[in-house]
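Q&A log
Question type: sequence-to-structure
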Amino acid sequence: MPRLSPAPGVLPPPAVAALHSALAGGPVPTALRLLPAGRFAASDGRAEGPWELTDDDGHRLVADMAARQSARYIDYEHATLRAKETGQPAPAAGWFSALEWRAGDGLWAVGIEWTAAAAEHIQGREYRYISPLFSYDPTSGRVLQLLGASLTNDPGLDGLTDLAALAARSLMIPPTTEPRMPDTLKKILAALGLSETADEAAALAAVQALQTNVAALTARLDSPPDPARYVPIASLNAVQAEHAATRTRLAELSAQVRAAELEKVLEAGMAAGKLTPALLGWAREYGTQNLAGLSAYLKDATVVCPPGQTQTGGRSAAASTAAPTGESIAKAALAYQAEQAAAGRCLTTLQAVQHVTTTLSTGA
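Response status: OK
Response body:
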């Protein structure tokens, strides 16, 4: 029977298959090999298979059987599978509660307890074969679970595969191996920001959100921008250039205002006799950098030359030197101190007085 593809978004159920192996003659056996180790296929030409039973899966099946509280059945001609469909009884032929994994050989049912009728049928060779029923991964063929076994003489019965599929749907056996997800689906989930284990509701919500975003972007592309809401780039550039020119002109005007204010302060200092021509260069440079500082200095500075007078009082330098007074020495010292400060040299008042008196005494 060909394998049917599951509906999109639905994981395929585990498939079920039934095989057979011959029962040895003589005494009724209490141990039977149900499944061979490794890779195996049916001998009756069915489309199912091949299947595979690994060491890990064999040990897992043994552990699953040991964890069960009820025994597994052996019936006749897979009657248990057909019971729900036919309504006919499905008497057991035997029971087993333990499995044994024999490496390189296969999975064995051990400690089988046969009914009296089944033992008589086997001894009389009325039934010669055991047919295990198991579920498997339809993608990889790996055996998932042992469901039971049957005594049969024709394991290739027509409809056996259909009955096995019916059992898979009714038993709802969960797969014990992870189904392999197509790479394309993995990429779609990753693009949606979902993990491979995301449920259908989360995937649907992500797809709907993506559709909403696409619709919004499409609407924006289909609707041209409103010219009334946007400024042409040429107009924007013109406004920016005008702004830059205005800032430059403002800076120039500010510099001119500061220069005019400085000249007023210098003129006032000269008129008050607190600045001499020798100090004018220093005062202008200092005022350019700190007009408020220069104004404060001139406010508290001593008058070097009273308005309408000269530093020598209208006398010649020789006459002034010949008759120095304490006031004239002090004024000369302050003037010299200011002169040196303009030249970048800082002198104390005492040093300035010493210089003036030394100059007067030497006549230099």
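Response note: Residues 15-171 form one domain.
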